[in-house]
Amino acid sequence: MRHFPLPRLFARIAAACLFITLGATTAATAADAQGQVGVQTPPGWRMMPLPSIRGHIQSADTDDNVQLMYNDDQQLVGVVMVTFTPGGGYSSLLKSFKYNEGDANPPALSMIVPGDYQPACHPGSSCETVHIANQAIGLCFGEASCRILYYDGRELRDIVMTD
Question: What is the model's pTM?
């Protein structure tokens, strides 16, 4: 049996409640690990019943919660991140793409640890190793393809790992 220190356990429970709350409405107000409310998710997006990830994706000072969400009007899936900082919080749509329920390769998120990564080499794109300083988002479509969404300073970058 795994034992968690109480503050970590409460933070995990609060993060789980955050995404249960997000799924209840199209545009929701999110709460951070301490229960402080005030971050509006992007209007028109609703939570998909898939696992979320949580970490320090933008920097060591942010508490980032990432979830796949769906927009009925646009018929798009999006990677939505709710970020809590010492001074407040905000939400961002990081990436969107077409997806139909029942597709052979559904999207899934994973946490990527900091380190050096070798992207897939395509004509016209760089094949050089990429250094990722913070935790990052792995976005995979079954066994079909994977990419990493990561922050390089304040800029969001996207590299293809497999296709």
Answer: 0.75
For CA atoms 130, 106, 52, 29, the dihedral sign is: positive
Give 104-126 pLDDT, tens digit per residue.
Answer: 788 999 999 999 999 988 777 77
Please provide the DSSP assignment of the chain as one string: -----HHHHHHHHHHHHHHHHHHHSSS-EEE-TT--EEEEPPTTEEE-SS--EEE-SS-TT-EEEEEEEEETTTTEEEEEEEEEETTEEEEEEEEEE---TT-SS-EEEEEE-SEEE-PPP-TTS--S-EEE-S-EEEEEETTTEEEEEEEETTEEEEEEEE-
Residue, of 79 and 121, whose pLDDT is higher = 79
Between residues 156 and 120, the one the model is more confident about: 156
The answer to whether the CB of 54 falls within 8 A of the CB of 8 is no
Supply 38's token pair. 């005030």
**Contact present, 63 and 45 (Cβ < 8 Å):** no
